[in-house]
Design brief:
This protein is an alpha+beta fold and about 400 residues long. It has 14 helices and 7 strands.
């Protein structure tokens, strides 16, 4: 007798089911190694939101992969209570100068990242890894918690190493900057002191005129340094430079800047070509600072006997400013970095053409900030054949809407 269909279903239903094959738990170290590209993509995307300049993908990711692999290895390494205590107190940095995290901190300082931005990168990295890994874990057990704790310890150690080298680099730059500031102020102050002594000796009218020229030159030099320092400090504090847009003649501002640059570099010949509609809404004080910084920089680095040329042209949409000098070409890899503050601190010594040349490395930084405040930009190109040309574009439409701080 054949069993009925109902009885067959009853037998199958009563038959014990084979237990489901448990899926192996995804360990955090394996996840990091296997999802490195995905994690790095998110790292770069977040770093780009913090990027103070136009950095490439390789610059944004720099030592991220090395840091992640070190963190992954650290998760599974044995650790006793003393080692755990030392790490929690920040005393387990080891050879911080050689780790990927420490090099990352140094490079981020060179890229003008703030300490807050550097810390934000590690906070985002921590959140990204845990957000992507935890859904793959399944049950949260003691092993999972141990891996999370070890991961957080490793992230904190990498952050500490980065902060250590970032801070060391910041201290070094600040000390060098102050030393050079004192050195560069000494020359114009000596000129003023000498002028005072000469005036006390009842000089002739011709001598008095020459002394007056020296005093004006030294005063302009120090005033320019102070203006650059104030502009740099305002931007670093997040306050921005004060702006007062008004209807002005950019040509008149350019001519006044040439006079100041000529007084600072009397041995340099400045040639001008000013044309087109140059009446618009801009901040005259800031534009004068922009023009002067570009011209003084060109006079400082130009070849002896070669002129510095200023070309200003206005059209319906914008005012374009070009400053050209002949001199050693700037390597293309440095075209962006020269606009960073303090990057010229290691500049070569004066070649004797101008004993009052400065090397604070703030002039181009301030010039770019002023252009950006006007909704514009500054770029440079440089080669041996054409010389070095700085081009600033100031759109008319954005000038009225420039930020007023």
């Amino acid at each position: 007798m054949k069993p009925s269909l109902h009885s067959v279903f009853s037998i199958v239903a009563r038959r014990p089911r084979a237990p489901a094959t448990p899926q192996p738990r995804v360990r955090l170290r394996q996840f990091i190694d296997g999802h490195m590209e995905q994690i790095l993509t998110e790292w770069v995307a977040f770093a780009r939101t913090l990027d103070p300049g136009a950095m490439s993908v390789s610059q944004l990711s720099d030592h991220a992969e090395g840091m992640l692999r070190s963190i992954a290895i650290d998760i599974d390494e044995s650790q006793n209570e003393q080692e755990r205590y030392d790490k929690s107190r920040g005393h387990a940095l080891g050879d911080a100068a050689r780790s990927a995290a420490s090099v990352h901190g140094k490079l981020r300082h060179a890229s003008n990242f703030s300490l807050l931005q550097l810390s934000a990168e590690f906070r985002a990295l921590r959140a990204t890894v845990l957000r992507l890994w935890l859904p793959l874990v399944g049950e949260i057990n003691a092993d999972t918690m141990r891996e999370v704790i070890r991961f957080n310890e490793a992230i904190d150690q990498a952050l500490a190493e980065s902060i250590l080298t970032w801070s060391a680099r910041a201290d070094q730059v600040r000390e060098l900057f102050l030393a050079i500031l004192g050195h560069d102020l000494r020359a114009p102050l000596s000129t003023l002191s000498l002028a005072g002594e000469l005036l006390g000796r009842e000089p002739s009218a011709a001598d008095t005129a020459q002394i007056g020229a020296r005093v004006r030159r030294g005063s302009r030099l120090m005033a320019g340094m102070v203006e650059d320092l104030i502009g740099y400090t305002r931007t670093q504090l997040g306050n921005g430079m004060p702006m007062a847009p008004a209807t002005i003649d950019v040509g008149a501002v350019a001519r006044a800047a040439v006079e100041d640059a000529s007084a600072t570099h009397p041995r340099t010949r400045f040639e001008t070509a000013i044309q087109g509609d140059l009446v618009g809404t801009f901040d005259s004080v800031r534009l004068h600072q922009l023009f002067t910084n570009l011209l003084v920089n060109a006079g400082q680095h130009g070849a002896e006997g070669q002129p510095v040329t200023l070309h200003v042209e206005g059209d319906a949409d914008s005012v374009t400013v070009q400053v050209r000098n002949r001199g050693p070409a700037i390597p293309q890899e440095s075209w962006e970095s020269i606009f960073q503050p303090l990057v010229q601190l290691s500049a070569e010594e004066s070649d004797g053409r101008d004993v009052n040349r400065t090397s604070l490395g703030l002039g181009l930084f301030v010039a770019r900030e002023i252009a950006v405040l006007h909704g514009g930009s500054i770029a440079v190109r440089s080669d041996e054949a054409e010389g070095t040309v700085f081009t600033a574009r100031l759109p008319r439409s954005a000038a009225v809407q420039a930020g007023v701080h």
